[in-house]
Design brief:
The complex is a heterodimer of chains A (442) and B (352). Chain A is built from eleven helices and 18 strands. With 442 residues, chain A is of the alpha+beta class. Chain A folds into two domains: 11-189, Beta-Lactamase; 194-434, PPM-type phosphatase domain (Phosphatase 2c, domain 1). Chain B contains 14 helices and five strands. Classes of the chains: A alpha+beta (442), B alpha/beta (352).
């Protein structure tokens, strides 16, 4: 893109070009909160209006590497790379900019520019223009402009435009760096609150889905987790599953959900019976200084039984009852007793065992699914009966397909309306092994 | 391996592949495809010329009522597992081609085409973030700011997702990232992609990969010549009135002595669902002011109903009542009149 044609301009054309330049800076640099995209926009604008190649070198901050990105005339994709801080600091002019020494623009002799700063196809070049990209306290980086020796050298006008661009780019990059830092911290803090990857377990097939009402961060009060038995545990001890829903929404609920998950992980080292775990968790929540530490949940201990069956010891505390999908497509509701945790001394949680034959499924879900308001005709609640009806059509599906289908039906039902956190977790006893050899003899 | 041998192998394999995914035989399907990979068939060819066409076939078999929903979903889940297996086995080039975010529009659950695009780009040396089915707008935009991709590929197979796809497409472009729209949801010729301001369009994964490879997209969104004219006043009005409107139509269908009055709750539920779809497609057609969206849907829904033993008259009755109640929305009324004509044509042409 060379909107200005040549680099020598008539007065009116120069004025028009300056306006275009400023408009371009305004619209491009205000768009992104990402340092790489801001650097790309800066380099591309600089290359289009001011130079044959433009490189943005970002200050390394605490890192040992300095990132750089370059736009080169006639080249669609940018060039990118990293250099060690010591290398970047050793380059005359650039080193001074990155060290925060005063001065908006410096001139670098092409003979002093290292190879990584000069694109190969430029050939011999005029003096390079190195502009400081001002940051919040220290410069956020440098903009290095190169013009090939065959064309005109930088004049006072170009230097002025380069300064203008550098100031605006510095502000955009500073904001982007701040956002990068903040979202980096956020990612670390919330990593534990996202649903875990589900393990592959012998003889069964697990799949889960979690959709948070807080859509940007994808965290909320619904959660699921799997605790695998310790190596020291006996073979009779199976994996422990939990799906729950804490009181509240958004980040605050997600923090409590994270605490419940950690608490259960620790407790599961000492106790494997789901109903006992529910009681212990209840005591822990009652003792918690945080107000409204309430949770409903389903705990399930998974065991492999004879002839490909799976037995699940369930404990349900104030949570919608798990559903069982039988092989013939009938759906059963597990009878449950306990109340939500964190309120009463006695939870009333009783154990209940279910057995799945090969291909049968146990589905855990949160009330965000059944209490979703929407539907084709009116603001109607989805309800247990629809969930059961939908589940009945899923006989024969792998767990992942079943969960995805139920999530899809629920999303369709909401039709873009207000949504609560929604969680689904399916445990399917692996279907009897199918052998093509066997089939081909049938 | 020459192109000719590969082509013949893929033709032979595709029948077998469809058979295995139709039986939800994951191991068998994985073995078949990894076997071809080991024989030297390129991974990209397997993804685009074996798995993608087989999945299109799965959709057709469902529409013709030859496969149940459960079988369709199970087959798709197997194809997803096969794609994962190919991705694990195939050795992609060292990532050096820039970064792409691939996502399905909100509400879009046909994720396999987007997944195939992701894997093909990865094989060709792109750094790809695949965000999966039905990606909420706020999540996609947050992701775009955090990771800084060179472009977003947005998949949409149904035009009913267009209003939401439009919102997220505009948000991505405002965040300084160009958008490649993908899928038939943007029109069989991509006309809605252009209308809604996308920087490019591809009908399917293979073309999308080509467009991206060839560098045919700008590095930053090109500002639109003029803001897209979106004729959404009637669409907004229809959305506002939708709950009462559809409840009323359903009531009229039951009281009007139509065939559904005698049926059970399940039938009523199905009818409500169909009415919901009619309203969704009508909204989308109004949004981009394109009758074909609605007409095509009516023709398709008549064909699907007929495959399941329901006469097109059941669709027509609903359309008549709707059109009667939407006389004050001239474009909606006009579209419904055309829709009734499309249903009549379907009734006249189809086998009884």
């Amino acid at each position: 893109m060379t909107p200005c044609g040549g680099l020598v301009m008539a007065e009116a054309q120069a004025e028009r070009c300056r306006t275009e330049f400023l408009v371009e800076i305004g619209s491009r640099l205000s768009a992104s909160l990402n340092t790489r995209r801001c650097a790309h926009a800066t380099a591309e604008i600089a290359m289009s209006f001011l130079a044959d190649a433009a490189t943005v070198v970002l200050s390394p901050g605490d890192s040992r590497q300095a990132r750089w990105l370059r736009a080169v005339a006639g080249q669609a994709a940018p060039e990118e790379g990293e250099v060690p801080v010591t290398v970047a600091a050793g380059v005359p002019c650039l080193g001074e900019v990155l060290a925060g020494l005063p001065g908006a623009v410096r001139w670098l002799d092409p003979g002093d520019a290292p190879a990584w700063l000069l694109p190969g196809k430029i050939g011999s070049a005029h003096r390079l223009l190195v502009a400081t990209l001002p940051g919040n306290t220290m410069p956020v980086g440098a903009l290095v402009l190169v013009r090939r020796a065959e064309g005109p050298a930088f004049d006072a006008d170009a230097e002025m435009l380069a300064r203008t661009l550098a100031i605006r780019a510095g502000a955009a990059l500073s904001a982007a760096l701040l956002y990068e830092e903040q979202s980096g911290i956020n990612a670390i803090l919330t990593a534990d609150l996202l649903p875990p990857p589900l393990p592959k377990l012998e003889g069964m097939d697990l799949a889960g889905s979690l959709r948070a009402s807080q859509q940007a961060g994808q965290i909320g009060g619904d959660f699921y987790d799997v605790c695998l038995p310790d190596r020291g545990d006996g073979p009779e001890r199976g994996a422990l599953l939990v799906l729950g829903d804490v009181c509240g929404k958004g980040a605050q609920a997600a923090v409590l959900a994270g605490r419940v998950r950690h608490c259960l992980r620790a407790l599961s080292l000492l106790e494997s019976r789901p109903e006992r775990l529910a009681d212990l968790l209840n005591r822990s929540l009652l003792g918690s200084p945080a107000p409204s530490s309430l949770v409903t949940l389903v705990l399930g201990a998974l065991h492999r039984a004879a002839s490909g069956h799976v037995r699940i010891d369930l404990a349900v505390a104030g949570h919608p009852p798990p559903l069982i999908l039988r092989r013939d497509g009938t759906v059963e509701e597990v009878a449950t007793t306990g109340c939500l945790l964190g309120v009463l001394e006695k939870t009333g949680v009783r154990p209940v065992a279910v057995e799945l034959a090969p291909g049968e499924v146990c589905l855990l879900y949160s009330d965000g699914i059944t209490e979703a308001f929407g539907g084709p005709v009116a603001r109607e609640m989805y309800g247990d009966h629809r969930l059961k009806g939908a589940l009945a059509t899923c006989a024969g599906m792998p767990a992942s397909a079943l969960v995805e289908r139920l999530e899809q039906l629920s999303t369709d039902w909401l039709a873009g309306g207000h949504q609560d956190d929604r969680a689904l977790l399916a445990i399917r006893a692996a279907a009897a092994p199918s052998h093509r050899e066997v089939r081909s003899h049938e | 391996m020459s192109d000719l041998t590969v082509g013949r192998d893929l033709n032979l394999a595709s029948e077998l592949y469809l058979e295995r995914i139709g039986e939800a035989d994951e191991q068998g399907a994985v073995d078949l495809v990894l076997g071809l990979l080991d024989d030297g068939v390129p991974a990209g060819g397997l993804l685009l010329r074996l798995i993608a066409p087989a999945q299109r076939r799965v959709g057709e078999l469902w529409a013709a009522d030859e496969w149940s929903v459960a079988r369709e979903h199970a087959a798709t889940a197997v194809s997803e597992a096969v794609v994962s297996a190919v991705a694990r086995r195939a050795r992609p080039r060292r990532p050096a081609r820039g970064r792409v975010t691939v996502a399905c529009a909100e509400g879009e659950y046909h994720a396999l085409p987007a997944r195939l695009l992701s894997e093909v780009l990865r094989l060709r040396g792109w750094r790809v973030d695949f965000l999966g089915a039905s990606v909420p707008g706020p999540h996609l935009i947050t992701y775009v700011h955090q990771t800084g991709p060179d472009l977003v590929a947005l998949s949409c197979t149904l035009p009913t997702r267009l209003p939401r796809a439009h919102a997220v497409l505009t948000a991505c472009r405002s965040a300084g990232v160009p958008v490649l729209a993908g899928g038939a949801g943007f029109g069989s010729d991509g006309r809605f992609a252009r209308l809604l301001g996308a920087d490019g369009w591809a009908p399917a994964a293979d073309v999308a990969a080509e467009v991206i490879e060839a560098g045919r997209l700008p590095s930053f969104p090109t500002p639109p010549d003029s803001p897209a004219h979106i004729a959404d006043e009637e669409c907004a009005e229809l959305l506002r009135r939708r709950p009462e409107l559809l409840a009323g139509v359903l009531e009229a269908l039951v009281c009007g002595g139509s065939s559904i009055s005698a049926h059970d709750d399940r039938q009523r539920e199905n009818t409500a669902e169909n009415l919901g779809h009619i309203a969704d497609f009508l909204c989308a057609a109004l949004y981009v002011d394109d009758m074909a969206i609605f007409g095509d849907f009516i023709a398709w829904t008549c064909a699907v109903s007929r495959a399941r033993g329901a006469p097109p008259e059941s669709v027509m009755t609903g359309l008549r009542i709707l059109s009667d109640r939407l006389r004050d929305l001239p474009r909606a009324h006009h579209f419904l009149t055309e829709g009734i004509r499309a249903a009549q044509t379907a009734a006249a042409n189809g086998p009884r």
